[in-house]
Specification:
Blueprint lengths: L19 E2 L2 H10 L2 E8 L2 E8 L1 E3 L2 E7 L4 H8 L2 E14 L7 E12 L1 E2 L2 H15 L12 H5 L1 E7 L3 E6 L18 E4 L21 H7 L9 H7 L1
Antiparallel strand pairs: 1-10, 2-3, 2-6, 4-5, 5-9, 6-7, 6-11, 7-10, 8-9
Helix pairs in contact: 3-6
InterPro entries: Pyridox_Oxase-rel (IPR024747), Split_barrel_FMN-bd (IPR012349)
Protein name: Pyridoxamine 5'-phosphate oxidase family protein
């Protein structure tokens, strides 16, 4: 499945172009597995990069900011092009030379213009973002107050102009490459897991750990998809 057919050639992968992929499902897997991306924009001629929590909702990356300011909201209002980047490190590749050593990874850069989510869609998009970051937590806490909603602006970036690059597998090696094969070479995978919950200072001793936290910390991976939410709010 093709991500887009309109990416200018200047933004195509030049070095090791065989690692570029246009597989839409691979893109969704990456975006659904990660929690933080980096949003970049030029502000008064100076590049600014900020890490932001996000969710993929259908064909968009959704994030939120304050109505009181922030470069993301200003960029959306001014229709300034931005770039949003997400990277997953899957392992380190140990070759028999430092030059040939590498990483296994998946990365995507999305270029476009941020959109302010319309008011009639903002609540659903904000709920999808919350459920992506802390699944099930919404049902355990109080509803957002009107003042809090008014102070929050939901933004989205369409997944129309995307370049994705990835590497998997072991080091490059051949039987007759002249290397000393008694030197170990291979891959050290990187695995992630959630740690034991730590209660806040004002949480009473013995307070039960909520179901959302138990579910999160017992999952094998931080990844989760929002396909159902995507279908509702795209």
């Amino acid at each position: 499945m093709t991500i887009t057919t309109s990416i200018p050639s200047a933004r195509r992968v030049r070095r090791l172009p065989d690692r570029e992929t246009s597989d839409r499902l691979a893109l969704h897997d990456l975006l659904d597995a990660e929690l933080v991306g980096h949003l970049a924009v030029a502000v008064d001629g100076v590049p600014v990069v900020v890490p932001m929590g996000y969710a993929r909702v259908g064909g968009h990356v959704v994030m939120h900011g304050s109505t009181g300011g922030g470069f993301a909201l200003r960029a959306a209002s001014a229709r300034t092009p931005v770039v949003f980047a997400v990277t997953a490190l899957d392992g380190l590749v140990y070759a028999r030379s430092l030059f040939d050593s590498s990483m296994n990874y998946r990365s995507a850069t999305v270029q476009g213009v941020l959109e302010i989510v319309p008011d009639d869609e903002a609540d659903a998009a904000l709920l999808a973002l919350s459920e992506r970051l802390m699944p099930g937590r919404t049902a355990e806490v109080r509803a957002m107050r009107r003042k809090e909603v008014a102070a929050t602006r939901v933004l989205r970036l369409p997944l129309d102009d995307v370049v994705m690059k990835q590497r998997a597998g072991g080091p490059s090696e051949e039987e007759g490459d002249g290397e000393d094969h008694s030197t170990w070479a291979g891959v050290v995978p990187l695995e992630r897991r959630w740690g034991a919950p730590v209660p806040s200072g004002l949480t009473p001793a013995g307070a039960p750990v909520p179901e959302s936290v138990i579910a999160l910390t017992t999952r094998a991976s931080p990844s989760a998809t929002l396909d159902e939410a995507s279908a509702r709010t795209a």
